[in-house]
Design brief:
By secondary structure, the protein is an all-alpha fold. It has two helices and no strands. It is rod-shaped and about 85 Å long.
Amino acid sequence: MQVVRRPHLYGLSGNESQEQIEDIVRKELKRRVCDCGALMETAMRHDMRKIEFTSASIGTLLWAFADLVNKI
């Protein structure tokens, strides 16, 4: 719908055939799906870095102060 509503964004002059418009729509949909996958992958990597940092920090603290737990 966006291709039809805003043809200037896609470089259309208004005299394109329906086949050309459908081709542009298919290409745009394919591009957006690929972009969505890349964005999800980036978000998952960011979340994994947080989890890795948290688990490494907790592990380091436990390793460093485990001998003090016996003294409590």
